[in-house]
Fold this protein.
Amino acid sequence: RAVRLPTPKESSCALRPVAEGFHHGGADEAAVDLGAVLTKELGRGRHCCLTLGDWIAVSHDDRTVRLVVAALRPERALCVLSTDLSVDVLPPMVVEERLRKAQAQSEREQRLIEERRRRAAAARAALESREIPADGAPVRVRLRFRDGSRSEATAKTNESADVLKWLVDAEADDAAKFPLDARDWRLVSSYPRLALSRDALAGSLEDTGLVDARGGAVALLVEPLAIDDANEDPESPKQHSTEDVWARAAAFADAEAARERNARNDDGAMELDEATKIEAERRDLDGAEKAALFRDLVGRGLSNQLAAHAAQRYSSQLAELAQMGFGDDAALSVSLLDKYNG
């Protein structure tokens, strides 16, 4: 049946494009004078009435854009032929969804930044107020972060392993050390070969297995963990660079040992750059080199299983042994590397 629609003196509507609408190529802003386009289209008399929830087709740039009537005032349906119509174009659904996700991501990142600031402040306060036991052997802890910076502290073997958490968390608000996708971290030691998550740092420093009752020095690589890494095997740390994390941990340990020797060398015979050189030159082999090493080890008598284990775990060490002339007995080399944790 026919219905006479109201024709108010003034009215307004909001139109939302379907799909990308006028936002070509996924742009967040439409490169077109929407007001002029709609005024011209509606002024032709092709759309004499509008109904809330209905859609209209608008031609522009050899394209037809469909627009949904998302809001209409003062009535749910009205005639627009003799009314002063104000038109508002809302963002397309896909653009609005993209902007909503970007806003949500920005809010999550801001919350994460604030959380890291609070964690870092709490860790620094804990370090300042910690009480070092009078007994127990001294332990010199050296940490290396992803940006190459270092942190150092002295502890005791019978001191709580929480001191390691505090030392790392004290740097949690530094984006260079911990990217925004890093939800946590773990400590990687090459000597002994360990990968310790936050939860594994329980009991005393001696209980972690990093040092024995005699104390000493321990060099640890701080590896940021993305959110998808939380359930990974701690014996297989995820690579966040082209280098293998075990090789980087070994390089750091060797470099710190070189710095220790230099500190005890009164005549200064060793240059300070030696430690940096050790750390820079120690690297793991890439995939093709590991495959070649695997074939070489099999050809020298190792079983497929042992050759695969050695090529994956000790590639850089085997390469160094070969350069030093100790690579003839592959089985003995791998056996010693297993015995002494690389």
